[in-house]
Design brief:
This protein is mainly α. Helix content is 81%, strand content 0%.
């Protein structure tokens, strides 16, 4: 059965990591198109204030959807470990448990986010001139959390089995659908920011349904029996032990970015629009680090399941070299010509915000190496089965962002707002490097003599 998917416990680590990462990178870029298409089309056809409205909810979306992403990825770490160990029965049981847990979390998350959204927007000092559009947009996104949950869970399951290409294909299709729906709902039906939200939710739902159909028709090893849907306490304990810290880690990071957004909102809708456009440009470029991190989670999980610690060391070495080379090249590009991508987002007043976009890109571009470290080592350590330790790196990020955000708010400093994330990356990267060497030196001794 293993040959149907991708066994990452044998073969050249560098080649395996590259082959697995590239589809994820392309998929992540297209996933960015969900919200990017919203910002581009809203900015072009509705206006800068509508762009700011959509952008002002970005950190809230990251709080909610980041929780979903972290949780589903965490629940399926055990799936990859069981697959790497060749235990297909237990692997299916982990998938059933992840599905049950995801359904319960979806219900709670949807109800809670919709109930507390308006007070949260007020608390974040969302500018009055964009408040209504921001509220309408984010409420529709919250109502569609189930669509996001469905895709991310099934995509995580497929990746746990070494299949990174199929989620990519469906994501590309749904991203294109999102763009078409954006154009129709915003330009033809004049729905504005809410139209962009409807397009996003529908497209995400389509990608999730397509993953489900593919699994049912093409992946017999994932065909669950009635027994697999009955949660196994010992497996659920492990899944929760990894999934909840990973979800909270994303949430902790999101809280830090919400503090930054709150400081930014005090500077007015003009700088909010510039920050929104700049962050979208950055996010496209940095998806390579996210993809490598996702790869390392699966790679480490399969190899820890097979007891091959030396392959994990080799994988980290290869991924680190690749990410550092990319960090230097992409950093130079984004700091020199990145600002010209502003034309994608606005039409009438590009000159007014391009200088502010350039400031942001220069602030982050020089710190891409610590960002690469954060993505690689956090995800890799999680794939090895550690939940709490990587979450501590998220706390370090929160501290870094929080300190800078508070200072920036007090001084009404846009540069300070732009430096909040880089400082957070440095804090987290330093802590993760220490964690990695500690784990490899002390905790991996239990596998001595097990490796072939």
């Amino acid at each position: 059965m293993k040959t149907m998917q991708k066994d990452m416990t044998a073969g050249n680590p560098t080649k395996i990591i590259l082959d697995f990462t590239f589809p994820i990178f392309i998929g992540n870029v297209f996933q960015q198109f969900y919200n990017m298409a919203d910002t581009v089309i809203v900015g072009k056809f509705v206006g800068t204030k509508a762009l700011a409205a959509v952008g002002s909810t970005g950190t809230i979306m990251f709080l909610i959807l980041g929780f979903v992403l972290g949780m589903t990825a965490g629940f399926t770490v055990l799936t990859a470990q069981k697959f790497g160990a060749g235990d297909m029965k237990a692997m299916r049981q982990t998938v059933g448990g992840a599905a049950v847990l995801s359904i319960l979390v979806t219900i709670v998350l949807t109800a809670g986010s919709m109930l507390f959204m308006k007070p949260l927007l007020h608390f974040m000092h969302t500018p009055a001139d964009i408040f209504d559009d921001a509220y309408s947009y984010i409420m529709i996104i919250c109502a569609g959390i189930a669509a996001q949950m469905l895709y991310n869970l099934l995509a995580s399951v497929l990746r746990a089995l070494g299949n990174s290409k199929v989620p990519l294909y469906f994501l590309i299709l749904s991203a294109l659908l999102n763009i078409v729906l954006d154009l129709v709902l915003i330009i033809v039906f004049h729905l504005g920011a809410p139209g962009a939200a409807y397009a996003t939710v529908i497209s995400q739902g389509v990608s999730g349904v397509l993953c489900l159909v593919y699994i049912v028709k093409k992946i017999p090893v994932l065909h669950l029996e009635r027994e697999d849907w009955k949660p196994k306490a010992h497996l659920l304990k492990i899944q929760l032990g990894i999934g909840i810290p990973m979800a909270l880690q994303y949430s902790i990071t999101a809280i830090g970015t919400m503090m930054v957004q709150t400081s930014l909102n005090l500077l007015g809708s003009g700088l909010v629009a510039a920050f929104t456009a700049a962050s979208k440009i950055e996010q496209v470029v940095t998806q390579a680090y996210v993809a490598l991190g996702t790869t390392m989670a699966t790679y480490c999980a399969q190899n820890i399941g097979a007891g091959k610690v030396q392959r994990i060391r080799s994988g980290f070495r290869s991924a680190t070299i690749m990410s550092f080379v990319y960090a230097v090249i992409s950093g130079i590009l984004i700091m020199t010509v990145g600002k010209y991508m502003t034309y994608l987002f606005v039409s009438g007043d590009v000159a007014e915000i391009m200088a502010s976009v350039d400031i942001y890109l220069k602030c982050v571009g020089i710190f891409f190496i610590p960002l690469a470290v954060v993505n690689l080592y956090r995800n890799g350590i999680q794939g090895m089965g550690y939940g709490i330790l990587p979450m501590m790196a998220g706390v370090a990020e929160l501290v870094g962002r929080g300190i800078v955000a508070v200072i920036a708010a007090g001084k009404r400093s846009y540069v300070g707002v732009c430096l909040a994330s880089p400082i957070a990356w440095i804090f987290a990267a330093a802590l993760l490097i220490v964690m990695y060497f500690y784990i490899m030196k002390h905790d991996m001794k239990k596998f001595e003599g097990y490796e072939e």
